[in-house]
Request: fold
Amino acid sequence: MFARAYRKALIAVGGNTTLLRAMAFLWKSIPFRPRRGVTFLFIKAVLWEKRLLKIDEQTEITAIKDLGSLAYWGVPKVDLDSFLLTVDGAVDRPLSLSWPELQAMHQVDRQVRMDCVGGFRNNSVMAGVPVPQLLDLAGVSSQAQRVVFHCLDGYYVSLEIKDLREGEAFLASTTNGEELPKYGFPLRLAIPRKYGYQWAKWVNRLEVVTDDRKGYWAQLGLPDRGDVGDVW
Reply:
């Protein structure tokens, strides 16, 4: 009962864009070094709360109405007729794929768990195109280190290519069998064992890079690797 109430409270916060922006503004207003310390304590406290509430024991599929999702800049409108996914940067064969072309590619269907750094968890079945398949089609340079996932709302995350391959990352188009704009449709990065801020929503570009640039939240102080449990 307490775990369910805790989850509902977190989802209510996540659905309030104004409150999310205010919280982010306050966090970013803290100088960087103290901000890292505050973030460390926050993550440790959330991990303790999840153990106390036995969140790790919750394996049932989360109902669509209970899926937690954060959208700091709102949910973008997407026209599938003009939508393109590009894969460029340090590649041999840049790609520009339409929605029908993406749908015609090999798809995976997996039960996955997403842990928000703020505390809630979604257990869902997601289906979509494997990221390694896209990287192989584009021909990634031997000097490439990371992929920056750019999103239609201006957000971006950066992940090591090794993590994307070993973590069996994919770009999901359905969640629990449905196309959910709030949850990142048409393409959301799904990468198990990473915190939710790494699960980029509304992805429209994969930029392969040879440097170690960080994603939006990572450069502000959240863990760069973003594995569940990381604090730095």
About this structure: The radius of gyration is 17 Å. The CA atoms of residues 109 and 188 lie 14 Å apart.
